[in-house]
TrEMBL record:
<dbReference type="Pfam" id="PF23731">
    <property type="entry name" value="ARM_ECM29_C"/>
</dbReference>
<keyword id="KW-0677">Repeat</keyword>
<dbReference type="GO" id="GO:0060090">
    <property type="term" value="F:molecular adaptor activity"/>
</dbReference>
<dbReference type="InterPro" id="IPR016024">
    <property type="entry name" value="ARM-type_fold"/>
</dbReference>
<dbReference type="GO" id="GO:0005634">
    <property type="term" value="C:nucleus"/>
</dbReference>
<protein>
    <submittedName>
        <fullName>Uncharacterized protein</fullName>
    </submittedName>
</protein>
<feature type="region of interest" description="Disordered">
    <location>
        <begin position="161"/>
        <end position="183"/>
    </location>
</feature>
<dbReference type="GO" id="GO:0036503">
    <property type="term" value="P:ERAD pathway"/>
</dbReference>
<dbReference type="GO" id="GO:0005737">
    <property type="term" value="C:cytoplasm"/>
</dbReference>
<feature type="region of interest" description="Disordered">
    <location>
        <begin position="126"/>
        <end position="149"/>
    </location>
</feature>
Amino acid sequence: MLLLLGPQAARGVSTVASKMGATLSVVHRDSLIDILMTGLGGRTWTGKENLLKALSTIVTNCKDGLREASSRVRTEAMIEVILRESRKEQPFYKKHALHALGDVLRDLEVDRFDEVYDAVKDIFKEQEPGSDNKEEGEEEVSGSRSERLLLTETVYETLGKAWPSNRDTQGDPPHINITLVSD
């Protein structure tokens, strides 16, 4: 029953967080975050991306309170959960997880660029010319190419959001191959 209520409940939480914004009490905010993080455990299921969206919405609307030292443990745990989810294999879900991760890191002003890059670097390898593409039907190729392009777009957006704003922590960026895709 909880599995069936998950996506709808997550959309409801997202709406509440959007409407209440920073007026959401700390107790309720933390309770909602804990519930969403618990729901993100386990396998991927249809609608699970709504939990990521709800978590991201709470962070966006309550970022000032979540930046406080008293929330540090909870925000670190939340980032770890979203990072874990961003390593999942399903491109559709991975895209949503990366989008949420980028928004959370940007809004909380947390420097985790290296970990984000580690989570997405395999996507760059898949885009390289000569990478091992299995033979697929024409429609499958078109669909998967479109899906890969959307995922790649999200990867670049997430890396941009995760880029550290503090010059001291920027260091030398990892070598990122940018491959232009043309039809």
